[in-house]
Amino acid sequence: MAAVTRPARREKPEHVRLTEDGKPVTFLEAIREALWEELERDPDVFLLGEDIGAYGGAFKVTEGFLEAFGADRIIDTPISESGFTGAAAGAAHMGMRPVVEMQFMDFVSCAYEPLTNYIATSRWRGSGPLPMVVRGPVGGGVRGGPFHSQNPEMAFFHTPGLKIVYPSTARDARNLLKAAIRDDDPVLFFEHKKLYRAPFLRETLQPGEPVEPLGRARMHRSGTDLTIVTYGLMVHESQKAAELLAGEGIDTEILDLRTLLPLDEEAIVESVKKTSRVLIVHEDTRTGGIAGEIAMRVSERAFEWLDAPILRVTAIDTPVPYSPPLEDYFLPQVDDILKAARYLAKY
Amino acid sequence: MKRATRKRGTSIPGLGRPQLLELYYYLQLTRQTENLLSNLYRQNKVVGGLYRSLGQEGVAVGSAYALRRATDGTGDVIASAVRSLGALFVLGVKPADVLMQYMAKAGGPTAGREQNIHFTDLDLGYIGLISHLGVMVEVMAGVALTFKLRNEPRVALTWTGDGAASTGAFHEGFNLAAVQRAPLVVIIENNAYAYSTPVSRQTAAESFVIRAPAYGVFGDQCDGNDVFAVYAMTRNAVARARRGEGAALLEVETYRRLGHAEHDNQHYVPAGEVAAWEAKDPVTRFENRVKAEKWLNETELAGVRQRVEAEVETARAAAEASPLPEATLALAEVTGGSAPTPPWTRQDPPRRVL
Question: Residue B198 half-sphere exposure, CB side, CA atoms within 13 Å?
Fold first, then answer.
């Protein structure tokens, strides 16, 4: 195969070598470095999406990429989420590893057709694995209104053949995005936009940290009295609750799922067997949310270990409202987690 | 200007007598395989629907024959429409594989997981379609884009019906390829009906090819029942794409002489319409032309037909002999290394998952 042509590399800009320079990175910078390093590592990796080139992406994730990698590898597409997601599949058939950016993950619904019908089924149909990533910002709390705040993971959770990653820390954002790009299956990668520049998530990473495969949950906080199973921004809301609960003598364990598909059922079961009480927290809406599936798995695998009913804290079943009082009412809050946890601890 | 290459004994650039014999072979292979499939369908040996290309075989065969073929994954790449069976044969797909797909047999390329020509052989350059129309244009835009990124002189080609040309996916995929000047050739195969819906209800435009200037690409059209015209038109568009001149939108006019699938009795078709198109049958036209031009004689044509008859019979025997797949083959990998586990009620002995 002919090698991909690219312009001569300029010196690596400062904003993508923070880790190399021993400096801490935000969640967004971790994602940016992961993309940059994968583009450098593998000539088959290329990016496509809306406004990712000259503009550097709506959130500036790919700022400076066009200048370094050229318009053949940083492709500004027409506004056509279905078209460029389907095209990514064709490129993946040919051995490329495309990374698609959804400007907001709300727009991934436009690509539901190629993702669920063509891409997810390809390996099983015998048409070959499709190594590709669809990544983009998700989540509420930023006054984005109904169409720039969604958490659409469960629209895809029901589709065999896809993987779904939803990290909550800078380290995981970087390492799991690299893992997703190197994975031979199609991966949806959800980045909570409220985490992008959150100062408390800044951390110093090591260059060349090992990239572990997808599908493993992470113990965020170890505890003995109850388990909170959660992911994304809610990991940090749960952490706030856990700190307050600690003052009340309730020792909370927090399991960060990180990967929703495949779901790390063993980690969930293990934690439930340890604490016998489980609360599932997700920012996604209630009905059809992942809490239902997790509760079922706990019932199948750990019913005898439970000392209390399985509870959930979620958003309410409406579109995401715009006005602050409405959106705050819509979203799960630390206070909701506290109340549910106290109920469980006392049960 | 490149001199038109006249091969031995014909006036068609690119086609000598050996090539004409090949073209006739693929036309006959398509028709006879489908005739056999109709018989197998009536014997309930085709377990799903049967989608025939009777009357439009010349489109698939003539256009695929204009491609650069390889068996090691380095040739041009096609994605089929459901009536593109002839193109698969041109690329090297074996008739037994097609029969086993229709018969849901273990020996078929998907071992019974998928049906008809929904399968893929990347070595031959064949990407199988799914049932959702238009998506293959998107996928092939990505294939073409890859050829452009890698500077490979290869072309991606796909067919869509007049119905699929109405989808948003068609537009999004084709527009992306057009903007990127990727080597994608799309042939809109106007066969008059999408299931029962006439083309007049798919588009208010006078043709499909008039979209070409709107997309900013090269466009061309021809009589889809004239194999020579289809070949020549595709050959030109493919050469342009290979030279880096970008995507092309082609249109052929043809006619679906049978229903959407075998169960469809075509009651919606005006009387006499099918018979009128039967008189324009692409295989008969090919035979008449090559004989009238004295490029091939009846003995040579009969020899091809007999060879195909024998091959199709061998394929039938192989397909019938292949067993149905083991039920647990449904548990094939959905993602790498993780085939789903059987439900606990199907485990032996049945046990709770605790």
Answer: 8
